[in-house]
Amino acid sequence: MDDDDVHQDLLTLERRGWEALCDGTAAAFYGEVMTDDGVMVLASGAVMDRDAVVVALEASPPWHHFDLADVRVVPAGGDAAALVYTGRAWRDEDGEPFTGAMTSLYVRDGIRWRLALYTQTPVS
Predict the structure, then answer these.
(1) Where are the domains of the chain?
(2) Helix (H) or strand (E) holding 57
């Protein structure tokens, strides 16, 4: 798999995650996509394992829409790569967005990519 394929695969998967955050299916999506020992580090400072992420997403309101910019892939070995980007997401159509520098580290589990680590840092 070449770098362009990895970039496209990871960007497609990341967008699917954001779409799930918008349509209310994020708990199921991340429960399936995250590795068993996967972790999310959120802008609030919360560090959550996969089970905690699923519980939190089941109780979270959906996002209205999102935008990903300045997307790049950082190789991290033969079966791992990080997707780094600036994300903006709106809870309400006319509200202020949350903007963050985001990193999703994916590892290949057989033939599919799985999310091992996600981080977000607020950007003003």
Answers:
(1) 3-122
(2) helix 50-59
Show pLDDT as tens, one digit a residue, over the chain (124 residues).
567 889 999 999 999 999 999 999 999 999 999 999 999 999 999 999 999 999 999 999 999 999 999 999 999 988 999 999 999 999 998 899 999 999 999 999 988 999 999 999 999 8
Q: How far is it, in rounded angstroms, from Cα 112 to Cα 116?
A: 13
Give per-residue burial for 86-117: e unless 16+ CB within 10 Å, then b: ebebbeeeeeebbbbebbbbbbbeeeebbbbb
CATH 3.10.450.50 describes domain 3-122: yes
Cβ-in-10-Å burial (0-12, 13-18, 19+) of 71 comes to: middle
Coil, strand or helix at 21:
helix
